[in-house]
Amino acid sequence: MLRPRVMGIVNVTPDSFSDGGRLASVEAAVAHGLRLVELGADILDIGGESTRPGAEPVAEAEELARVIPVIEGLRTRWAGPISIDAMKPAVARAAVAAGATMWNDVTALGFAPDSLATAADLGCEVVLMHMRGEPRTMQADPHYDDVVAEVADWLAMRADAAMAAGVARERIWLDPGIGFGKTATHNLVLTAGLHHLAATGFPILYGASRKRTIQAIDPTATDPADRLGGSLALALEAARAGASIIRVHDVRETVQALAVQAAVATPRGR
What we know:
The chain has about 270 residues and is an alpha/beta fold. It has helices spanning about 25-40, 60-75, 90-100, 115-120, 145-165, 185-190, 195-200, 210-215, 230-240, 250-265; strands at about 5-10, 45, 80-85, 100-105, 125-130, 170-175, 205, 245-250. Helix 1 crosses helix 2 (about 60-75).
């Protein structure tokens, strides 16, 4: 069993739910990204606009000022894959010009009329994520009749739209959007049914690191930093179900857990 690749999170935001404000300078963000690589990150995901529940939008100019210097700083010192976590096409375009190789879009290329065309023009890998609503309102009583089927069908529709716009199929990733317009129960059911999404044939990115679903199971975990155990459990479940990238804050621990899981699953002689 090959372990999934690990995507390390580099939030250049003052208000992200877990680490907002911690990387207040370009130098700190670049150093953090390089440290995540040392700890085993295969991909770095750079974000300049929080998408936590209730988050307010960020002006395009401000988002560009946050992320572009970080991508440029990382690219001068590391040749590995860099993802831009953004919904605005102009931010994605500038990020790819600065050295990003993947566009991770929580709106599945639905934010702007030119999102699909921009993705096709850039030719980079694209992550299409499922979100019910938008960050300010997405947790206001979300409802599904069959969350696995509805998320899978919606993502398949967005993948079709991307391909129709000219995005190559082999460059498309799907993300079920754990915590984005979903209750804790929805998130757990989606995780348990992740193999249905993997059966679409598109590679899967899964991100549940430090999210509130863990607190729903362990009410003492009110601080996101106290959700490591739950994050690892969800990562292992996602890997078992076929996820190819796990997006996390705690890179070293996740890499180790996935490596042990893969070792256990590898057949050996007596």
